[in-house]
Amino acid sequence: MRERSGGHRRGGGRPYGGRPNGERRARTSHDERPHAPRGPRSGLAEELGALEGAQYGRYKGLVGRWELPGGPGGVSLELVRAQSDPYAPPARVAVRVPGELAGFPEELWATAVRRRALASYLARRAAGALRGEKALRVDAGGQEVLDRSSCTVDAEDGSVTLRLGAALPGHGRRIDGREAQRLLTRVLPEAAERTLRHAPSGAEGTEGTKDAEAVRRFVETVEDSVALRDALPGLGLVGFVADGAVLPRRSGVDDRPATGGGVIPFASPDALRVTVELPHAGPVSGMGLPEGVSLVVGGGFHGKSTLLRALESGIWDHVPGDGRELVVARPETVKLRAEDGRRVERVDVHAFVDHLPDGSDTSDFSTENASGSTSQAASLCEAVEAGARVLLIDEDTAATNLMIRDARMQALVAKEREPLTPLVDSIRSLHRDHGVSTVLVMGGSGDYLEVADRVLMMDAYRPSDVTERAREIASVPTGRRAEAESFPGVVPRVPVPSSLDAEVRGRPRIRARGEDVLSFGDHEVDLRAVEQIADPRQVTGIGLALELAVRRGHVDGERTLAAGLDLLGEELTTAALLAVRDEDFAVPRRYEIAAALNRVRGLRMRRA
Fold first, then answer.
1. Is 0.70 topped by the overall pTM?
2. What is the pLDDT of residues 384-411, one digit of tens each?
3. Are 279 and 273 within 8 A, CB to CB?
4. In 3D, which of 547, 346, 302, 319 has the Cα closest to residue 441?
5. 338-347: per-residue pLDDT in tens?
6. 156 HSE (CA, 13 A, CB side)
7. Which has the least CB within 10 A, 10, 346, 409, 520?
8. What are the residue ranges of helices labelled H in 475-535?
9. CA distances from 50 to 40, 65, 83, 434, 518 (A)
């Protein structure tokens, strides 16, 4: 039997190289070293010119703040981190424009939501201005409007800081001072002048007016999305899809909206249509998906999974023109799937897996190599433990034997010989007893018609409410017997901080490999099944958040995982993660942080 239960680990010592009792070796990172405050230096162009042909490592002598020549007075450039050699990761550069020079009206940065939207707009504009400079890279992101380190707007005075990667130029291992002069003292100042300052309506003719209108539209679009999402609990909804929304994407690798005559805008069924008043868009109508158990049915290729994916991404705000600007889901929404081979650490899965042939106790279950069914059961329990209140499941990526066991299989295989209890028998209890709603895409099992509060049929991307017809069909007995009466809840767990050590040979190692893998210390964390990660920079953010949680003592060996996530959430900001390391990242949600933590192969947990 490849799976084991119980919390005992064979062998003594510290099997994962951690320190006892959660102890962390004190260290001071490059970003945390104390330094005497000093104003910006002048003469960057001259310094770079003097370094022409010098050893590449002498770039490090330029670390610090500089007045940015060629731009408006008061604008500064900071070389945060220099490259050690031409083949190392790019240097980190920050350009700061004071609020009085940036000139954005206070109404555009008066709230956290507006600052995030304005920063996202400016990062995209800066990336566009620097697109032809391969050595300068701004992380502008994709269709989602995320809280990124690449651009921030100060809450006190509206000052703008742009952070970017800079591949400092060289001839082999010698400094190319002339090219560095061009990049840092001409190209960057000109880009800052064009992109990080407000062009009021009417300034510079038509272009100034267009820019002022574009930034306002961007900010208002994001603010409407947030307002719509915030309204869902009061309306008893788990999601909303606006009439006219464009849900299909161009391809699996292009998240922009599909185009062409075959694209069908979304139109809500009359029975589910609600109207919500938004701050800028005014009254908006669309499909409101109520709390409880919702089933999405229909033939293959008719839009079931497309609708679910839209709800899956509805936890994020989207740029104007995306087509999903007014498609939102509750912030506590988590997508689940089967995940063969994942590790599970001390999760109570007995509601779904019990009386294993070897007699193992599945109320305290661990395995290094979970099957599809046990992985999905564990992921469901972990999501609820982390605070999820809406679960999304697509039969295409679910474990069939965890989803359903029909009457004929019950007749053939007696319950006492079947360790698995299907979700269909506890899904109503999840909502009734624990306040957790579920939205399922289901095209192959009619047994879910008996437990669904509503059934939505997709036909050629057009939805209709078929709940009453589904109930008529479900009223005909199939002979199937329920195998559980309720979902008992989850057992809290306590992470052991010494098993979450990001250090390798005395230095933190936190690195993203796309959206799929996080290198965290000695561990490669597989995140392929964490489907709501929208951007590779969120993977970096997850790693930094895990490190922050341990540094701050939110994971201390005493607090439950949920309590630690609560404390982390109170300070999970761009500034807090920048204090861990100045890097390109996007701030993640608690649910993706918890999912990554649960997938660290060296993780140790104890029961609360």
1. yes
2. 999 999 999 999 999 999 999 999 999 9
3. no
4. 302
5. 999 999 999 9
6. 1
7. 10
8. none
9. 19, 18, 18, 68, 41
